[in-house]
Amino acid sequence: MDTTTKKTVSYWKPALFLFFASPLLVELLSASSPASTFFQPLYFLLQVISYGLPVLIIREFAVRWKLGLRGIFIMGLGYGIFNEGLLAHTFLSPATLTSVPGYAFYSGLALAWIPLVSILHSLLGVLYPILLTHFIYPWSADRSWLGKKRFILFIIISSLESALLYFGSRQFAGGYFVLFWLAILFLFVIAKRRPGVIEIKSVVSHYAIVATGLLVILADVVMITVANANAPLPVFWIILFLLVYAIIHLLHRKGWLSMPAMVLFASGSYIGLAVFSMAMRPWPEVILTNTLFILAFLIFTGGRRRFADYTAKAVSNL
């Protein structure tokens, strides 16, 4: 593609898809915001801004810094801090993870919940939606979507949102606001120093990869069980680390830390999240919404030619 063509290409379609995909896939599938709540105009606007703008910012950094899966995942951890620490304030709540009052709550911080939910946000709200968008719009995957002015504007909006929602409640110490932002910036610095590429490999075992994606949600269930057993915090952290390591090691050994295998893996995680949410909150609207999502992902992952065509086109463009 020559320079003239690059300048005329519009990226509004993949940008809009990613902007809406992140909040839809996390909030609806987790039943944190059932459809009747999620689609209320003001609430919907808040959710798409809270998810959509940061994930576009992270994707833009990933392209400009030439980051792979590892770099995006690390920045996604920062988004977990942004969402749950600065916007939702669950990092500062003693009752988030378990029925055990104040489990692992020290110095005003939920020290078990923080790493677990940050990992989930990184995967479900950042990495997976970006990979899914790149799969659907492969021609845009390595391109910058945001001009300099829009990029800076999005950063300013997200920063102002964090200050308004954090200090608006007048309940939390300003020191934690600074601490959370320092942690976010630290993670972004680490990510920048971990450049990489996302490999393209053909896949054969479509449904095996989808089934493996369920491990992410199963690991979440294990950690909730560990917390409800009132396990010591170091034990919680060790088990969480071992589960994360085991899943990454399995993906690496199978050669699935690549595209489009990770899209199949992500689909399995979303299916698992939908099933888990229906089990925890068997409300009619949750069952209907999540069943539709499950069927959509099963149809999507069953299109073997779609994945074969993606691999062929991606390899030819290398």
Walkthrough of the structure:
This protein is mostly helical and 318 residues long. The chain has one domain. 72% of the residues lie in helices and 1% in strands. The chain contains 13 helices and two strands. The protein has a two-stranded antiparallel sheet with strand order 1-2. α9 packs antiparallel against α10 and α9 crosses α11. The chain starts with a helix and ends with a helix. The N terminus is likely disordered.
Measured between the Cα atoms of the first and last residue, the distance is: 12 Å
Classify the helix fraction into a percent range: over 70%
Radius of gyration (CA) equals 19 Å
Beta strand count? 2
Q: Which strand order does the major sheet show?
A: 1-2
What are the defining features of this structure?
mainly alpha, disordered N terminus, 13 helices, 318 residues, two-stranded antiparallel ribbon, globular
Question: Could you write a compact summary of the structure shown?
Answer:
The protein contains 13 helices and two strands; from the N terminus they run H-H-H-H-H-E-E-H-H-H-H-H-H-H-H.
How is this fold's topology laid out?
Elements: H1 3-8, H2 12-28, H3 35-38, H4 41-64, H5 69-87, E1 105-106, E2 109-110, H6 113-136, H7 148-168, H8 174-192, H9 206-228, H10 233-254, H11 261-280, H12 284-301, H13 304-316
Antiparallel strand pairs: 1-2
Helix pairs in contact: 2-4, 2-6, 4-5, 4-7, 5-6, 5-7, 5-8, 6-11, 9-10, 9-11, 11-12
